Amino acid sequence: MKLINYDASAAWQNRLRAVLSSPRLVALPVVGLLVLIPIGLGLWQQQSRAQLDPLYRYQFSRPDPGKVTQALEREMAFYQTRILSDPKGGLNRAALARAYLKMARATGESSWYLLAEQTAQQSLANLSFSNSEAVLVLARVATARHDFAEALRLLKQAPGSPDALSVATTAHLALGDIAAADVAAEQLVKQAPSLGALTQRALVKVAQGQDGAAIQDLQQAIAVEEPEETGSSVWARTLLGRLYFKRGQLPQAQALYRETLRILPQYPPALLNLAELEVRQGNYRAAERYYSQFALTSQKSPTVHDHVVMRGMARVKELLGDTAAAHSWRDRAEARLREDLTGFGHRRELAHLLLERGRPKDIAEALTLMQQEVQARRDAETLDTFAWALSSVGRWPEARQAMQAALQPGIRDAALFHRAGVIEQTLGNSVEAQHFFQLAQEADPTFDQQAQRALGLGVGLLGLS
Questions:
Q1: Nearest to 25 by CA among 425, 329, 442, 299
Q2: Given this model, what pLDDT does residue 51 score?
């Protein structure tokens, strides 16, 4: 396997130090800053016209349509039958809860998460000790609810296993504790250098701005995949496609998303990312088709992806000039998000929508929501949304502080750099603003007006969460 060398130039390091040492810009810790360095731009650019790299081709037979969910249905039926003969036991209920959780992750349907949670709680009521499987199900449901502190609390009852380390990595990333996430991910890979473990570590590397290391982990993850790991296989390819997308390598991203759908047709994250890619390219009708395809094939019951589809359709309609339809889709998304606030904690996503709409009362509520959200979640996207809300009410110095916190671990994201530049520009710091705009271009050389329009930067919209 060919790995990529992503060495940074001394000239770039000097420029980065210059902007961050400006007396008008509160300095960030050096440890978190050097990973902002743009790496491997030449190779990203060389691959801009590439099709699917053979390394990313799925080498196994694709599962038949419905095979994954059918296998999970058989698994659930098996444990349901065993529970009938052992109603007071805990282990069979824990296994059933895990099967429900796998179905939730496969379909995105909210009801499966609730069943997983209820079944795991009953399992622990029947067997309160030596029942780590039930505890881990509850921890994963807590992450789905965006209750990351609760997930970490639960892990104290079941520490050390690969599943526990995986949940810990996710929770620490969401809480903005990148150092703790890095420790958990390294332990996870050391215990079991599997497809899932390497993909988890890649997420940490992305948060640190180490894109080259993230690509290497995802390449290695795909190289060691097994045929029974279909869910993890499509997840890894979707994340890799997202990484290429963030660097403006749209053909490579598109090829990876399509390969994901070749493996598992109707996989929601791939469909939604393809829709976003079409918006980025100005192909709004194609984006509509992807959103509609998801809506037609995945609506047996409410899913955790519904609000993304509705907000995406609103964005497309707005870009097409159909304001009435955009308002209608946005209203539907708002209703769904408000339904989910108590269940799955979509405060950040609701704040996004309210900021997109931009009415004074909406902006005030969005700020309140984000003030609450940053107490529970402090990843880069959350802090970026907080900065957006603060800047929308004219609290620019606080918005700058939020953006500095978002960028401190080293994430390289053109949209975040662009917002940081706008904030500095508004505060009268033209030199610092220009440096952030330059960072945006170096993170994604194709970050032009169309890309900014697709994300809603400067036109009242923001991208998918």
A1: 425
A2: 83
Q: What is the pLDDT of residues 78-137, one digit of tens each?
A: 999 999 999 999 999 999 999 999 999 888 888 899 999 999 999 999 999 999 999 999
Residue 33's pLDDT band, with cuts at 50, 70 and 90, is: very low
**Contact call for residues 94 and 123 (beta carbons, < 8 A):** yes
How many angstroms separate the CA atoms of 59 and 380, rounded? Answer: 35
**Which residue in the block uniquely carries the two structure tokens 């502190």?**
149
Task: Give the global pTM.
Answer: 0.84
User: How many Å apart are CA 463 and CA 315, to the nearest integer?
Assistant: 9
